[in-house]
Amino acid sequence: MLYPVIITALSLLALLSPSSAHPTTTFQKRTAGSLLAIAPKANTCANATFPKECKTASEAAPFINHSFATYGITTAGEAAAVVAIMAFESGDFKYNINHFPGRPGQGTRNMQSPALNLLVRAGLKTGSLAGWKAYVTDCVHTTATPERQAYWDRAAKALGVASSS
Fold first, then answer.
1. Closest Cα to residue 87, out of 137, 163, 151?
2. 139 contact partners, CB below 8 Å, separation of at least 6
């Protein structure tokens, strides 16, 4: 049940953010097509190593949209950062627990500190690459590798981030 658990993590990004403070770079609901642009291998669960854990883009999109609406993820930059990290850490929505990228003891669920999220939320709202890097290093506590950035770049493009540089 990857998506209900991830929904909890999304609530952390929604803290202390009045809707009037959001920039005009809002986004539409994620569709299977936009998720496939971010996570190209999410088109099927055929041949998935753990089929009960796998979700296709079509199956994942409603859960992601619901959680973003519930927890106030309203800018393209925030949405791109969260979808990018979910897609990367779940191997394009193939895994629910840590099978990918294969670090023992580390899960694929994005559990973060609310205080750290508050520190980087403004940067995510701008849709900047620097804001995304701060999110990855300060909240996720990992390195902004080229592989992770490829997901960010695809998410920023697919979700209409105005400025990803």
1. 151
2. 112, 113, 116, 117, 120
Q: Determine contact, residues 9/2, Cβ cutoff 8 Å.
A: no
Q: Which CA distances in Å does 66 have to 2, 8, 99, 138?
A: 14, 12, 26, 26
**9-20 burial string, b = 16+ CB within 10 Å, else e?**
bbebbbeebeee
Is 68 exposed, middle or buried (CB count within 10 Å of its CB: 0-12, 13-18, 19+)? buried
Q: Other C-beta atoms within 10 Å of 106: how many?
A: 12
Per-residue pLDDT tens digits for 76-123: 899 999 899 889 988 899 888 776 566 655 555 555 566 777 778 888
Measure the CA–CA gap between 92 and 102, rounded to whole angstroms: 14
- Whole-model pTM? 0.76
Structure tokens at 163: 């400025």
